[in-house]
Fold this protein.
Amino acid sequence: MEVCPVDCIHPAPDENGFRSAEMLYIDPAVCIDCGVCVAECPVDAIYPADELPESMRGYQKINADFFIGKPPTRPFPLRTVSPPGLPGAAPLRVAVVGSGPAGCYAALNLLQVGGAGCEVDIYDKLPTPWGLVRSGVAPDHPGTKGVTRLFAEMAGNRRLRFLLNVEVGLHLSTDELASHYHAVIYATGAPLARSLGIQGEDLAGSHAATEFVAWYNGHPDFADRVFDLSGTRAVVIGNGNVALDIARVLLADPAALRKTDIASHALQALCGSSIREVVLVGRRSAMHAACTTPELLALGQLQGVAVTLSPADLVLSKAEQAHLEKSHVLRAKYEIFRHYAVQPLPAAQPPSVSDKRLTFRFLESPIQLLGEARSVHGVLLGRNRVIDDASGSTTIQPTGAEQTLETGFVLRSLGYRGAPVCNLPFDRQRDVIANRSGRVTNPATGEPVPGAYVVGWIKRGPSGVIGTNKHCARETVAALLEDARSGALGRPAFGSHDIDALLALRQPEQVSWEGWRNIDRSEQFDGAQSGRPRVKLTSRTALLKAAATQRHEVEFAQ
Ligand SMILES: Cc1cc2nc3c(=O)[nH]c(=O)nc-3n(C[C@H](O)[C@H](O)[C@H](O)COP(=O)(O)OP(=O)(O)OC[C@H]3O[C@@H](n4cnc5c(N)ncnc54)[C@H](O)[C@@H]3O)c2cc1C
Ligand SMILES: NC(=O)c1ccc[n+]([C@@H]2O[C@H](COP(=O)([O-])OP(=O)(O)OC[C@H]3O[C@@H](n4cnc5c(N)ncnc54)[C@H](OP(=O)(O)O)[C@@H]3O)[C@@H](O)[C@H]2O)c1
């Protein structure tokens, strides 16, 4: 329940029937099929309907029956409970910078807990909302994007506004925001890429995964990137969920991609792609692969793609064996790798034209990207071994053995990195805005910066799924409201009319919620013409034009 991004597991502790419930039920009308509860359940009790073991099929009906005759369960009900002791009759005005999951959950939580006492403005530098749900989540995961329905519902609340195409640091400074609101919550995510710091990293043909993902998802700042897909093998460094997303997109059947909301420029390029094999390189052992179990398992469903690894990569050290015995999560992942390793294909040859292959390699670190005429032509990999220490933990150590893996296309999927926002204190070691439980702090004194808060990836670093931000937001909003009650928030010098006047001067091309709805309807209308969920607009010019062009629901229905 705690991890569900759309609160579709019932009855919840504050709902009737919780105490007497024999089991919990998942509302199929609200579930976005993100798989997080499946991964998180401590007793492996949750299955997707189509993977229920024969002996448990009956539960599907029991689950569905629970919801018959009940009013539709609404995720995240917007209760209007004014918190005790919010100061004064005037509402608490809060700006949220960033409309990704973290910013949206924070706004939802403020409206839910703060009730009529709060007014919220959500800013985003893009003309479109939803952060990585639009520009990160893979196009073949349409269900996951359903979380935006929950966020869109709050736009109907008259105490909330979306102010899109407004960049803090460009159109408004953090000081200006601070003088117009009681509090500002920064939810700016982690837009940068980590780097390897090895020779050859910047050769042509070597790219950060962040750029490739933003390109195929139609982020307007990356739409003009060019990726050479003319070779047969792509090498991805890293084996987190982003690496898996990239591998699936590179190996997908173009006919399947045509049914998604992938950017049209990427669809065209991928239709002409010659890539038959994607190799995922992990520096640690299979047991430490960074991807999650449901995502790893789902690779087995890819049509026409053999998922493989060398059985030698599954040999465990003593300490690893002990860890495996203690953790059902590690065991589940290891079992899936064992299943993929049963029939490894010969690794030396690229797969035939009719087959595609996704190969995991473990205990190998990139030492250098090799190049010719400034283009990458291979990755020099150094072999590692696992070292058990006396405390039972493990580390890796280079063995000195090296091997070259030939490729003209390298994607570095090493994770994301936060960027500083104007003059807010930045923790350069963790690449987050310096904070304690969501309160921005001055690193020199440890004191909170009055009225400044953080949430999401810019608060915790770039890890966690969409639902993780829900709890992160709860913590930040609780801190903010506690400060409001204790009188720690100053009264802003200016009001809402003043910020509107300032914005009219600084960013006349600001996009409102209605502007985004025009973009949304336009994209969906174009998608409906070609059997796709939407055709994304990928340039700011096209987005702003669509925002300014009134589109009606009736037009869409035609
Ligand atoms: C490639 C990828 C795929 C993923 N797929 C999944 C998935 O399938 N399922 C899942 O559960 N999780 C997935 N995740 C994780 C999930 O996307 C993150 O947990 C979540 O997006 C983090 O939320 P956030 O709001 O902190 O950051 P973001 O989603 O990055 O949102 C930050 C927002 O802030 C805006 N912004 C930044 N700077 C400024 C500024 N100066 N002024 C105004 N606005 C600004 C940005 O435009 C953006 O909209 C994925 C992550 C990645 C990277
Ligand atoms: N479907 C989904 O639910 C979904 C999809 C995409 C992303 N996400 C979430 O988004 C977050 C970010 O995902 P991510 O894949 O970008 O990051 P990640 O999970 O942190 O994976 C990063 C990978 O890069 C490797 N790496 C880092 N530095 C390296 C170096 N110098 N040399 C070699 N390898 C290096 C890591 O190896 P080590 O482990 O050895 O450090 C790891 O394999 C995660 O929490 C993820 O679950 C979720």
Q: What stands out?
A: DSSP finds 19 helices and 22 strands in the chain. Residues 34, 97-103, 123-126, 131-132, 136-137, 141, 144, 167-169, 187-189, 213, 242, 245, 416, 421, 456-457, 464-466, 468-469 surround flavin-adenine dinucleotide (ligand 1) (CB under 6 Å). The chain has a mean pLDDT of 91.
